[in-house]
Input
Amino acid sequence: MKKIAFWLCFGCLGLPWAAQAQAPAVPDSIFAAQWQQWHTDRQQRLQQPDGWLNLAGLYWLQEGPNTFGAAASNQIRFPAGRANQFLGTLTLQNGEVTLQTAPNAQVMLGQQAVRRMVVYHDQMAQPPLLAHRALRWLIIKRGSRYALRLRDLESDNLLNFNGVEAYSPDARWVFAARLEPAAPGQTLPITDVTGQTTQQPLAGYLVFAHQGKTFRLAAQPSEGKLFIMFKDATTPTDTYPAGRFLYTEPPDPDGLVRLDFNRAINPPCAFTDFATCPLPPAQNTLPFAVMAGEKRYGQGHD
Output
């Protein structure tokens, strides 16, 4: 059985440090099976109640009262036929959002009907998830703005989902990268699809070699992992125009990171118009085609 080994000789590239990374040999059949399981799990997660396929609305709140429901007279209009005409009012005041529901609105928090409660403030660890029929929503904050994020557990987008096409797994797209740590407190300006730019924590730069050249990708910390947003030469045609996301495990004791582009994924905005995706920083544009990972799903942002 053929086996696949991954190596990278940094000293051969004339870099200021020299190291050689050798990952354990993996039979190609096991490599493919592991990727297929990851791909299957990924598509199942997209279809979960907290997945991206069921997003049905993103409504920015105005300071003061915001009425909501299915009627056209509401400031926040839920999809027609999916909710009562008037469900209540969300009042935004000084960074706090208070919900007052209409009588018999059947807005639920778990098994309890809600009449009045604070549903967001900046010190809240997790805003409550509210429900009405098949709809679910909570309040989110992006930059200095507040929004209601709506989900529909019976949305057409979810019910008609047929999977995400991907390149066949290819071990040639697995690299041993070295993490160049960022200075303590160093940040990276990240712009999202709404046009807002915020300073985000920077973990450092992943340095790897491909076809005899050296490349660097800015990486952010994300719940114990490293998070990379990137674009490459496939984005105009085969993959999502705004770029793709990639998560890796943290570096090993030698500072090396397994950079597996076979696990590159579409951002949430590929699946819905109601996500507020960050965009790859300019320096994370690779000049070659990364023919690995998920292919384009939807039209999305450029």
